[in-house]
Amino acid sequence: MKKEVPFIQDRTEAAAPSPGMDRREFLKRMGLLGGGLVIYGTLGDLPAEARALRTGLLGSRVPSDFNAFLRIDPDNRVTCFVGKIEMGQGVITSFAQMAAEELDVAYESVEMVLGDTDLCPWDAGTWGSLSTRYYGIFVKEAACEARAVLLDMAAERLSCPRNRLSVKNGLVWDRERPAIRVTYGALTAGRIIERHLSELPRLKPASAYTTSGRPFLRRDAIRKVLGKARFAGDIRLPGMGHLCHSNIFVAARARDRDPGKPQPVPEGRRRTRHHLHGRRPGHGGI
């Protein structure tokens, strides 16, 4: 097996925020995009093996802050941000299942935002069957850590030990006082919450799955059947031009062909391979 070549050598470069925006500003921005959950803090001396490695071409720029992947709004809706795109492999469904599973929320409450470079965390690209089996671990980690922080917050809100709490569909309650309960949305209340965990939680074992591994109608199925699904080729932006690719070959008629001599192409019918015809917006094209 070939050794993975690091995408960048300097790990501090990988963790650095984009120019003109520090980490706090980035997190505030994420929190203001609809007013949901943003939790951040210094992970400090947490063991490296508790988190999937962020190294090499595929992982060196993937953020470890789970708020880059998730937002929980006051109405208990969850938005999951992933840099991958949906191109028929079903990740718009599978990522929602992963997030719902680790957060303990209803699958239907998870909305997916894919491939939006303004909102989604960095990704190396959608290729090589890496979305579910590789990038999925980052989504699961983010949801798992968010759940742990939310349970800490719920224990404080409900004035009970954390080990007495149960959670289902984003609703947390005290098992000894079932009427005492609170939702994830009520806990976040649109605030930016600064908190860190002393220890990263373990992912849910497969034996406890209730959403992952279960059959769900693919979220893009109906749009595809009705012809309403939009792909990269369907995108139209203001002022966008179009190019038409020509690959035309003109051959002389068989009776005029001399195998020993090249046949000229009549003037006006000549085309150059890979010739591009520019089209102004609104003037056709492909």
TrEMBL record:
Gene Ontology molecular functions: iron-sulfur cluster binding; oxidoreductase activity
Keywords: Iron, Iron-sulfur, Metal-binding
Residue ranges of the TM segments: none
Comp. bias intervals (Basic residues): 270-286
Keyword Signal found: no
Region annotation (Disordered) ranges: 254-286
Pfam families reported for this sequence: MoCoBD_2
Protein name per its UniProtKB record: Aldehyde oxidase and xanthine dehydrogenase molybdopterin binding protein
Record organism: Desulfococcus multivorans DSM 2059
Phylogenetic placement of the source organism: Bacteria, Pseudomonadati, Thermodesulfobacteriota, Desulfobacteria, Desulfobacterales
